[in-house]
Amino acid sequence: MGLALLFIVLAVLLIGGAPVAVALGAASLVYIFIAGLPPVTMLHTMINGVNSFTLLAVPFFIMVGHLMNTGGITTRIFTFARALVGWLPGGLGHVNVGASVIFAGMSGAAVADAGGLGNIEIKAMRDAGYDIDFSVGITAASSTIGPIIPPSLPLIIYGVIASTSIGQLFAAGVVPGFMMAIALMIMVSWYARRRNYPRDEAFNFRNLGAATKSAFLPLLTPAIIIGGIGTGAFTPTEAAVVAVVYALILGGLVYRTLTWRHLLRVTMDTVETTAAILMIVATAAIFAWILTANQSALHVTNFILGLTDNKHVILLLMMAVILVVGCFMETIAALTILVPVLLPVAATIGVDPVHLGIIVVLNLMIGLLTPPVGMVLYVLSRVSGVRFEDCVRATAPFLVPLLIVLMLLVFIPELSLWLPTMLYR
């Protein structure tokens, strides 16, 4: 009875438009009162949920994204990507994907990509005569690469919940991230042939050299982060601090585009975003604790295994559940609730927790492109001036290549496990 009421209250609050953290916290509090537990239990569990050294990486990687956007570094990245792949048919579509791949190695957040690079990309594509539906669709889809290629905020959260190596998760995201980029570039080429989109400009070694020189220092950011973690020079949390210091040096001392006023705004934005994320993590922690106390993971495992013992069918069922949840719930909250429930199921059928992390996060990233929550769609609606409903329609075709990549990763775990196996095992 108490567990049923927990989900009823949560659903009513989410449908009513309550913030995710409020909905999770209120539903959990109702359960605690009904179960006769002391309210202090909720406070202790919430505090323990965010009391993690690894979670310190979250505000720092968020700040890196804000610093890159505010300091004009994203413009240099876009210019470099334009010189590198703009000569292909549908040039600016390929530039869009390429810039997202580069930015992914700095920030690790889809919303930061959509809000920062998206503003530059959509304006450039509009000026070049690209259809707005294509511009919005490819910008939305390419932003999901950010949380797959390291560093990745969702993978950090997953690693904390699943007690899995962050370094291995970061390594596991490299190949899938590039697979997403290739799949989206194939989609861009198909659109370019069908709609006769132009090449942006002829390939020119001089332009590429100038763009590379301009963007060289920002391009070192992914190498510093990934190289430092891979070689053991610093932990993922320390890598986040190093990335912030490096971004401050670039924006404040090298390019001199970062003023004290900009820094104050970046700091306030970082605090606001971090507070929202960690509040979700804290309230989701008590929600997940309630599910664990009621042996929900065991019940779910027994239920699924009662339906079938086929590993691939079970994985497809899990992906379907995650996809549905991702349509209605913010990524961090979905991870905190789903992972403790699904991890035992995956362990029972022999799925590596690193492999599970990649397919869960990619699945939830697809959820960012679907209504009714669709945070990336809301951001791009504001950036582009296009109605939310039109953003949904524009993005729908680009879900196809992302779903194909997801299915490949589900059925061929070596695609995500090859690199961490080479580096760590």
Q: Which oligomeric form is depicted?
A: single chain
Structural class: mainly alpha
> Distance N terminus to C terminus?
46 Å
Estimate what percentage of residues fall within beta strands: under 5%
Number of domains: 1
Number of strands: 0
What value does the average pLDDT take?
85
Rg value: 21 Å
What is the number of helical segments per DSSP (H or I, 4+ residues)?
Answer: 22
Major β-sheet, in short? none
Element string (H = helix, E = strand): HHHHHHHHHHHHHHHHHHHHHH
Give the helix proportion (percent range). over 70%
Shape: globular
Low-confidence stretches: none
Features:
single chain; 425 residues; mainly alpha; 22 helices; 79% helix; 0% strand
Explained architecture:
The protein has 425 residues and is mainly α. It is built from 22 helices and no strands. The protein has helices at 2-15, 20-35, 40-50, 57-70, 73-85, 91-104, 110-127, 132-143, 153-162, 166-172, 174-195, 205-231, 236-254, 260-293, 296-307, 311-328, 331-348, 353-367, 375-384, 388-395, 399-411, 414-424. Helix 10 crosses helix 22. The protein is globular.
